[in-house]
Fold:
Amino acid sequence: MRLDKFLKVSRIIKRRTVAGEACERQRVFVNGNPAKPGKDVKPGDTIDVHFGTNTLKIKVLLITETVRKEEAGSMYEVLEEKSRA
Structure:
């Protein structure tokens, strides 16, 4: 699945266009490398997302095209949450 779509489906970022912009601005890293919106994501990958002064590091557990809002958290495991403030 594309990285921008994964971020939207898992509800880490609310809109796919915003997820794509975050990738283009090098605020999203997959396995430690800057990632473009079209990067393929698979289970076992780690994703770092930088939101302003906050950083979220997750591990991809499940890839699915659609998921209910209540079950979106089952697609990933939060490894680390940091606030630089």
Summary: Helices lie at 3-9, 16-24. The radius of gyration is 12 Å. The first strand starts at residue 28 and ends at 30.
